[in-house]
Amino acid sequence: MKNTALITGSYGGLGTCFVQTHGKQGGDMILVGRSEKKLAAQAEEVRAKYRVEVHTIAEDLSQPEAAQTIYDTCRENGWLPDILINNAGFGGQGDFARERTMEQISP
Ligand SMILES: NC(=O)c1ccc[n+]([C@@H]2O[C@H](COP(=O)([O-])OP(=O)(O)OC[C@H]3O[C@@H](n4cnc5c(N)ncnc54)[C@H](OP(=O)(O)O)[C@@H]3O)[C@@H](O)[C@H]2O)c1
To answer: How many domains does the chain have?
Structure first.
């Protein structure tokens, strides 16, 4: 693999942008997310579009053992990431000043 990016949350909003940008540059990828089905569909599309090597790891990153499992999977398969784009996550939407109390900001 060459110029390999490990991208978490790859099929979400910003994740898809990171994947497309890296693919355009000819970089290989290891895509991480919760849904095996969505990862497989994305990997197929990206391989066909950019002719790059793409592997997937289905993991729920909220689980304490997830990072170790991802590390072990990469090691076992000889996948060596050059770049980590640790994008998976979630956030609220709305008017921050109106919708957040001081307790929520600083419990
Ligand atoms: N969009 C913004 O304006 C903005 C601003 C500041 C920071 N951010 C941060 O940038 C990141 C991406 O934002 P986004 O707007 O693109 O979010 P998004 O559209 O909700 O996509 C988030 C991605 O992360 C994955 N994900 C969430 N929880 C996960 C978990 N426990 N394990 C594995 N994958 C998980 C989601 O997969 P599932 O669909 O399977 O849950 C999805 O692919 C987030 O960390 C967010 O907090 C975004």
So the answer is: 1
What is the CATH number for 44? 3.40.50.720
CA of 19 to the centre of ligand 1 (A): 14
Give the pLDDT of the chain (107 residues) as one tens digit per residue. Answer: 889 999 999 999 999 999 999 999 999 999 999 999 999 999 999 999 999 999 999 999 999 999 999 999 999 999 999 999 999 998 766 665 665 665 665 65
Question: Is this model's pTM higher than 0.85 or not?
Answer: yes
10 Cα: distance to centroid of ligand 1 (angstroms): 9
Q: Is 27 in the pocket of ligand 1 (CB under 6 A)?
A: no
Pocket test for ligand 1, best of 19, 84, 87, 96 (most atoms within 8 A of CB): 87
HEC secondary structure over 55-102: EEEECCCCCCCHHHHHHHHHHHHCCCCCEEEECCCCCCCCCHHHHCCH
